[in-house]
Amino acid sequence: MLRSLASLSIVALLAACSPGPDDSADGPADEASASPTAGAAEQATGPDDMSDDGQAPPAKGYASSYTKLDLDICDVLDKSTGEGSWIEFRCPGLKDIPLFVSEGDGRFDVDAGIKNGDFATISAFNEIGDTIEWRLRDRVPFAVIFRYRDVSMESSPRSVLAVETIGSDGVPGCRVAQIDGSAARANQRAREIADTEAAGFDCASEPRYIGNAR
Hints:
7-stranded mixed sheet; 4-stranded antiparallel sheet; 11 strands
């Protein structure tokens, strides 16, 4: 009887000291399981949540904020339904900065802040991704990054990231660069171009093109 009790005590002691089946999986939560609201405005995920591997940390004072683009909730400013139909929208943006979206001949243009009078797009029939990335310096927005999807080649999908400055009264924005979505570190390169070139960009000059981005 005493031998049985001693054996049971040893078994119980060993069980208490052994890790449970889930203990080895414990550890810091990864990004995917973190709360979606924690720091959501500054996650470096890029337009349409396509992140790049090995991103460098943002430069001091720079950050990103993200908004959704939904044409169904935008105001229609003007349109033509005849031959060569087109339509112009005014959409919610970030805080009090609106987005102006124009569509014509199966192609889209996006202006931020105010309309700039130019129709900048890619040559192929396209659509706009539903995520707009706003680049901020010291919490002040100065550029937007968005994604074109080439819808002309279903068998070989292509996307292009566009970098656009934010316009204001008397100083319209313009296209700074277009980056092939399949280029290495495309999202990070778009942010770097926005951060280093947008502020002093001459809108009379041609945008910068990286890869198959026209």
